[in-house]
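Example record for the data management plan.
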Amino acid sequence: MSMQSKNWARRKPAQYKRNLLMLSLTMSLLASTTSAHATGGMTLEGINISGGEFTPSAVPGVVGTNYIYPNNTELDYFSSKGMTVIRVPFCWERMQQSVNGPLDPHELSLMDAVISAANARGLSVVVDPHNYGAYQNVTIGVPGGQPNSMFADFWSKMAAHYAGNPKVIFGLMNEPVGSSMTSATWEASAQAAINAIRAAGATNLILVPSTYWEHPVNFLSVNAADMIKITDPGNNWSYEVHQYLDSDGSGTHADFLSVSDSVATLSSFTAWCQANNKTAFLGEVGVTAAPGACADLNAMLQYMHANSNVWTGFTFWVSGQWYPANQLFLIQPTTGTDVPQMQTIMANLGNPTPTTPTTPTTPTKPTTPTTPTTPTTPTTPTKPTTPTTPTKPTTPTTPTKPTTPTTPTTPTAPTAPSKPATPTKPSKPTAPTTPTPPTTSKPTPPVGKLEKMPGIKESKEIKEIENYLNSIRFQSPFAFSSSPFGAGSFLRGVQSIGNFFNPSAAQAQSSVEKSEGNK
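Corresponding structural encoding:
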């Protein structure tokens, strides 16, 4: 500070302090308005290791029999490939076995062990209650459902337990789609959980999903109006979305989109996030080993890196000890060889987006050293502790993977090791390039509209009669079903009118009726 400034500060200390305070407040406000939250950067890239969510009907269940958590072999493999995060699904009812009850010490210790082992290998962990927006098959946050207060209670306790570990990431809920749930009811549920997490003193990254299976491809039309209202007192969150690259985005088919359409599944959502200063995490994405499918995945990951101001990262679906080798998207290290999907992911870790090299100016000719130093022969590098080809995990013979439980009213996490066939899923969004062909069967006529009878000749006159009959049908205080003449008599009247305009059809109809009468 100059002498003049020091003298001014001595003369007017109160004004000087006020000016400093105003400057500080201005800088704080500027920071808060230029960054919605401190995420993005594509720093979290990894895998879903599934198993902890299996057999939700068996609570508490037996680990190793009803469900399974990641083991060290899996963690060694994925960390050795350069991944930085794993997503670990679990069953909420095992972690908290009664509404507003304590967290179960045994289940918590199992999750703690996974987190400790993953963190030791440089992996962050997304803890994911894989419950589809319900607890004990009752949807949260809807009339007659579980109250938002119990969802907040669960996350308050989880947050208090993991508040000291920034490498634990809170995924609020997997694919909230419960009965009667809307984007508005879910936004209120998610906000209650976020507030509870911050009230518990945790500053961990929070991943906030949306309804309709978390699809970014229709986020703007289904979720944006409500989910834009999400706020975080800790300023550290991202939206979580799921996008599979099969024809309907469900993750249940072996087909795949074109490369351009794969990127298009993210583009409108990415633009919306950029316009609203939001970030996102792709919690599930899956493709088969087909070259075209891997080309889709490659294009999507490169697009995300090119827009890393929006994308926090991704976790591929799926890995897990109990999955069969023919699971569509499995990248479990079972053969000692990286599968094509894994090779594609490895090629896109870090910042793989190619940049156009600048044309160098004519370089100055380097001076030739008089006596170049003879390079020392490098010593043989020590073999890395973690082998590039991990030990093949043993396939458990007993117990066998539990069978899928009866489908509950509200979709629950699947018990079969295959990627959950989307339970009672609403109509899928139309794939960008392959529209669903119309059904060939004749649709059932809607209630309140007369179906056209056979033999009626299409003409202006009969059309006018049909319109008139339909109009008086709705004006009449008597329903045809309760009419003393019955709907059949009425329709036969229409048939007669049609025969009047089409005598040949009348003769044909008469022949049919006589034939049937002789049977």
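Summary line stored alongside the record: Residues 441 and 447 are 18 Å apart (CA to CA).
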